[in-house]
Write a structure and sequence with these properties.
2 domains; six-stranded parallel beta sheet; TIM Barrel; lyase (chains A, B); homodimer; PYR_CT (chains A, B); 315 residues; hydroxymethylglutaryl-CoA lyase activity (chains A, B); globular
């Protein structure tokens, strides 16, 4: 077990990525209820909202109200997502958030063009402007992210070498501007990863950048979520994004109702069984998953919430 | 990838273990419809029914009618489950089945007592009678099975050494009576396994019996199904039980609606991505999963049936 981390950092994305994809409107009160409950579960990092164009994402129009209404817990980081300067300004003005600058490159040129209407060179060139914005606001640039690192609906399989190149570009962008990234995230944006590709990609990035901390953003679109997380743990990855109950869906899935992000409580169950510390009280987290299910009004895909814990059965 | 098998044998258990646990009655016609569709998917082994006491399991009272009604496909094995001589006699009389003798020991003494009201010595002593019955009927004894090999709701964690001992006892029972087991199955009867315990248990059995073929019977009760199957593949295991759509539930789960067996099509997706041959046409199998969902009248837990295939996206 020598490569396993002794503890993992989990970024809970249910309130943001999870609620964002729900077709039914989620009330501000319900969003705050879930965030507050998550704060009490032992999670140390919750991404609570995104500051995006309310005409395009009406469900996140109340981001400021959510941030104002939630109760901040000592020792928990509360972060938000934004896609441009306007979103960042709203996040900064909202107050009460742990602002963190992030750089983003794409391993799929086709997805980048479709999503941002940019070439790789244009996306690269856009990053220094972001860095300057963060620096002017006194916000540290801590995170790099490679989207579509494991495959792309518009381009197919992604060469591992391209992911390694993108990671190198992120590190160069940061250091060229006097910043040091705390970690780089690899995103399985469209649910293509398998444990084998997780091992290959993480291994290749590790080979080239042995001291870089990596995180994984995984989807369970094709049922590989937990298996991919396991492969990440085997490779020593100690940062994971996840969503309580398996919230999140997948806008790129073949059919309606596809599974969402890596399910937080199923992942915590795995870590508990492996003796890897997460800080999370699994029973409290399962209560959060049940609350999330009640709020969205349909079954979520998490398994441990129905299967039950082993802890009591061991007594 | 040197330990990965080049091909795996899948025993589809959806019609038997899956339908057996459904609370609503499944019609004989629907059972046959699913079996016939599965026969066309490329699966080479389908466990179609169980011959058990109809007073205790009314949903399997039509086992003979199912076997008579289904259309046997060249190259597909059709097997059944039974628990005693009476069940075996019914299976033999039904005709059209590939009869296979099986020996069964338990890694959990507490579960054995609860399930069969026997001590380990009594369960061991009961096996030669079974062997004699099979030999008298000219039915080969091909399979050994260790129940509760990864943990037990009534006993907790199971010592790895005990599983190794049970496997040794199965092999001894067979050879003492002139039989040679084709493989020994390890059952995660109550959904306790993690990829780590799969590796530990399979590794320990392999160490002691390097030439023995192993199979895994996995449940997804706590979301570990695919991850556990991956761990098995990494250890070179090339036989798996699975259920289309993730049918199967778990009578030992903490709450209603728990996930069922390892989901066949999610597992086939993983094998396809790894280049491991299963013989299965994944699109045809997904049609079977949709049919299974229609027949049981509620959502099943399989992911690929909603996430969609990658094959078309690669074109």
């Amino acid at each position: 077990m020598s490569d396993f981390p002794t503890r993992v950092h989990i970024k809970e994305e249910g309130p943001r990525e999870g609620f964002q994809i729900e077709s039914a409107a989620i009330s501000t009160v319900d969003k705050i209820r879930l965030i507050d409950r998550l704060s009490d579960s032992g999670l140390r990092h919750i991404q609570v909202v995104s500051f995006v164009d309310p005409r395009r994402v009406p469900g996140m129009a109340d981001a400021e109200a959510v941030v104002t209404g939630m109760v901040r817990c000592e020792g928990v980081s509360y972060t938000a997502l934004w896609l441009n300067a306007r979103g960042f300004q709203r996040a900064a003005a909202a107050g009460g958030l742990d602002l963190e600058g992030s750089l983003n490159l794409y391993a799929s040129d086709a997805f980048l063009m479709r999503n941002q209407n940019r070439t790789p060179a244009q996306q690269y060139a856009a990053q220094p402007e972001l860095i300057a914005m963060y620096q002017a606001a006194g916000v540290p640039v801590r995170r790099g992210f490679v989207s579509a690192a494991f495959g792309c609906n518009f381009e197919g399989d992604i060469p591992v070498a391209r992911v390694v190149d993108r990671v190198g570009e992120l590190l160069a962008l940061a250091s060229d501007h006097g910043e040091t990234l705390g970690h780089v995230g690899l995103g399985d944006t469209m649910g293509w990863a398998t444990p084998l590709t997780v091992k290959r990609v993480v291994g290749a990035v590790r080979d080239r950048f042995p001291d870089l901390r990596l995180s994984l953003h995984l989807h369970d679109t094709r049922g590989m979520g937990v298996a991919n997380a396991w492969a990440g743990l085997e490779m020593g990855v100690d940062m994971f994004d996840a969503a309580v109950g398996g919230l999140g869906g997948c806008p790129f899935a073949g059919h309606k109702g596809a599974a969402g992000n890596l399910c937080t409580e199923d992942f915590v169950f795995l870590c508990d069984e492996l003796g890897i510390e997460t800080g999370v009280d699994l029973e409290a987290l399962i209560d959060c998953a049940r609350l999330a299910e009640e709020i969205v009004g349909h079954d979520l895909t998490g398994s441990v919430m129905r299967g039950g814990l082993l802890r009591r059965l061991r007594r």
